[in-house]
Amino acid sequence: MASSGARTRQKQRQRTPNVGVRAALFLALFTCTLRCSECEKPSNIVLILADDQDVYLGGMTPMKKTKALIGDAGATFSNAFTATPLCCPSRSSILTGQYPHNHAVRNNSLDGNCSSPLWQKGPETTAFPVYLSKQHYQTFYAGKYLNQYGKKETGNVGYVPPGWDQWHALMGNSQYYNYTLSVNGKAEQHGDNYEKDYLTDLILNRSLHFLDDRSPQRPFFIMLSPPAPHSPWTAAPQYEKNFADVKAPRDGSFDKPGKDKHWLLRQPSNPMPSTSLNFLDNAYRKRWQTLLSVDDMVEVLVKKLEELKELNNTYIFYTSDNGYHTGQFSLPIDKRQLYDFDIRIPLMVRGPGIKPQQTLPAPVLNIDLAPTFLDISGLNLSFVNMDGQSFLSQMAPELRNGTARPYFLVEYTGEGHLDPDPACPKLGPGLSQCFPDCVCEDAYNNTYACVRTLVEHNLQYCEFADSESFVEVYNLTSDPHQLENIVKKVDPTLLQAMNQRLIKLQSCEGDSCRATKI
């Protein structure tokens, strides 16, 4: 007869599973959990941000692969706009999802708050990569960031903005060769060797390494910001002879006098001298040449995602920070103006739930990119203070419900110099971006705010902060090239309504910027 101690030990063995069985159960449970987490992993996101690429004047023409691999495979937005037509404030709007009057970056200068300590301590701390990082995204940045980034006054290259796991950012403004990168806070010098240094190719290759090294269990966000097609327009060697016969388009507002426009548009010589025409044609050609490398970038990146079996779970966005002009209203080359050629931008997106070959007319702004990324990540957007709105519902209505905005704001703060341009002393102080023939593209009082609507009417109403309190109004249905300022012809009640909308948009913040009725 078994003793009572033996019987007790036998009962304990019956109640307690074998250690090996427990280990097997734990492994099965862990594997199941891992598989479920992989199934529920949020989608990856890729943003390719060109620099100064227009859509109005044929800027997407060289991008045949990009249009096929992103636009034809998803959605092309025919009414995409920047909230401000200049690099640093526009990029700040992309990062924060805010209008310039809320993130306070006014222009490309340090005094204009571009990458300044004030920006770093304020708006940059709530930029979208910070939220994506909290959503457990692996984040990667490469290319141009903000125009003043890396300067001594902004913390040198040792400063890495919050939210980025991998950081390969250009110091200063766009370059193709002979530049300095901040690589995770350490300076990396580059020369003029095409294979080693051409910036468009380099940032692509760095992103491919990131994809190889990342954790497949977590989603990723990649932002690539090539210099193209920004000046100095240095094409890759294999593309230097492309588009030899191409010239800037001569239709629309090309070389038309700005007789009823703000004084800055009334000062260029008309018709333009041959020297200006030759200059802008050359710039137009070279811009296209640089974009061919960006087109290659898109192709290689899409193939890589396909090889990794991540393409079907990745949203790919292609856009630009602002538009551009080459000869419109006799202005040689630049951006900064309120007209469609400077404020319209390309925008194409492919990804889960987006049906191919869509052209979507709903107006979308660059301040909408950040909330769209966060929406894709699964974040509750009520937790963030952004002026923009997610446009995931526009691209993939089966995934989200939403409405298009009825009108929106475009605002810009002009740049100038205290002293007159030495080459053009008669023009006096307060101007900038002056060309040898004394045509200036910007001035302190080229400061304006516009309300734009594409619902019911395709109208633009703009007010300048100058001594004239100058107003420009355009009906883009009948006048798509904005040739005639109709401020003196339009119904006064409509002018008053647009003015009231503008006043409220200029002080809006968060939800009030998205109000459907003002």
Automatic annotation (TrEMBL):
Signal peptide stretch: 1-39
List of residues that carry 3-oxoalanine (Cys): C87
GO molecular function term, any single one: metal ion binding
Major location category of this protein: other
Transmembrane regions listed in the UniProt entry: none
Sulfatase N-terminal domain boundaries: 43-378
Alphabetical list of PROSITE patterns matching this protein: SULFATASE_1
Reaction(s) catalysed by this chain's protein: Hydrolysis of the 6-sulfate groups of the N-acetyl-D-glucosamine 6-sulfate units of heparan sulfate and keratan sulfate
Family affiliation: Belongs to the sulfatase family.
Protein's UniProt name: N-acetylglucosamine-6-sulfatase
Provenance organism: Salmo salar (Atlantic salmon)
